[in-house]
Amino acid sequence: MPSTFSLALILFALLNLFSPLISGAPVEDKTTDLAQAKSRPRCADVIQRREWRSLSDDQKDDYIEAVKCMQSLPAMKPVIKEAKSRYDEFQAYHIKRAESVHLTGQFLPWHRQYLKVFEDELRDKCGYEGTIPYWDWSLDADSSKPLSKAPVFDATHGFGGDGAPGTYTLPSNHPPADYLIYPTSFKGCVVDGPFAHHKVPLGPGKYIGDHCLTRGIQEAAKAYLNSIAVKKIAAIPSYGEFHVEIEGMPLTTSHRPHDGGHFMIGGDMSNLYSSPGEPLFYLHHANLDRIWWEWQNVAPSRLYEMTGRSTTTAPFTNVTLEFPLDMDTLGESVIIRDVMDIHSEPNCYTYA
Ligand SMILES: [Cu+2]
Fold first, then answer.
1. CA of 102 to the centre of ligand 1 (A)
2. Which InterPro entries does this entry report, sorted A to Z (predicted)?
3. For the residues 202-224, what does the mean pLDDT come to?
4. 57 burial class (0-12, 13-18, 19+ CB within 10 angstroms)?
5. What is the pTM of this model?
6. Ligand 1 centre from 169 Cα, in Å?
7. CA of 39 to the centre of ligand 1 (A)
8. Mean pLDDT value of segment 234-253
9. Residues with Cβ within 8 Å of residue 237, at least 6 apart in sequence
């Protein structure tokens, strides 16, 4: 756990960086367009995203093999030249877009499309026949076992475990507050499982330098990830409040499932910019996306409910269904409307 002081310091840095967001009045111009929604073709077939522990060992191995395949394919046209693999290219684009796709209305839809293009790439370039699994961390947070014993951290059929203390040092010329780092989360390199000693070329934060995949599992994060925390957020009736409450700090003053999950894994994952260097990023965000999808399905009016500011700095506009979700060289750029119904073209997946 970071000390209260270091948490306060981080919060201060976050508040400074995003102060216009916090001080500005929320923009309320809800977009609900059911007529348009009905015109989108329904998928003939949907593929199922499943919870990690419901996969067979072979299915788990297939997913990890596909991720490792992405890490072995050359980058195509990365936005940061040091990105070496196609996998790194996804991380690079997240670093570049981090300040516009977090703490804004497009947070959930942008990450929904980001996951979709990553999943398409696993299937198209690496012959993967499955989907991105999701990690329902509430199951582990509700359990009396430590989070570090969660099946995702298994060394044989999982992503490997916690960082080994003393194996990693943050760059000394790295201003932690600028990069929104939790220094105590960088416990050490992952030394077991399929990503042991895997080299991440970008991060932590906006820093560029080869380093090991780092973790620092925080057991205290259970409080933000348990089923009570999830139920509380799922019960929020408006999207405007829901997307803030699921995303968390610094929009909120304490952790929520999104930032709490990032913080729980630690290392690059605990960073706003470089987090997709951690392969569990995709399973964490798939679970957030599932919670949003379930929220959308509570009432027909929610399926296309969208609101929130488009930028973290003035002048603020409100995101609408026409707002662009750029994916650059990663895959198809779409508008928010296109991602809202995952059972409609061009999405065609669901959560089991
Ligand atoms: Cu992100």
1. 6
2. Di-copper_centre_dom_sf, Tyrosinase/Hemocyanin, Tyrosinase_Cu-bd
3. 94
4. exposed
5. 0.89
6. 24
7. 30
8. 94
9. none
DSSP H stretches of helix in the chain: 4-17, 19-23, 34-38, 57-70, 86-101, 107-126, 138-142, 222-225, 227-234, 239-247, 257-265, 280-296, 336-340
Give the pLDDT band (50/70/90) at residue 11. Answer: very low
pLDDT of residue 36: 52
- 124 neighbors 144 (Cβ within 8 angstroms): no
- Residue 48, H or E segment: strand 47-49
Residue type, 6: S
Ligand 1 center from residue 296 Cα (angstroms): 20
Q: If you measure from the C-alpha of residue 82 to the centroid of ligand 1, how many angstroms do you get, rounded to a whole number?
A: 20
Neighbours of 292 (CB within 10 A): 23
> Using 50, 70 and 90 to split pLDDT, how confident is the model at 342?
very high
**Which segment of 190-199, 208-217, 257-266, 307-316 scores lowest on mean pLDDT?**
307-316
Nearest one of 24, 11, 13 to 309, comparing CA atoms: 24
Distance CA 306, CA 97 (A): 20
**Residue 197's pLDDT is what?**
85
Q: Identify residue 98 by its one-letter amino acid code.
A: A
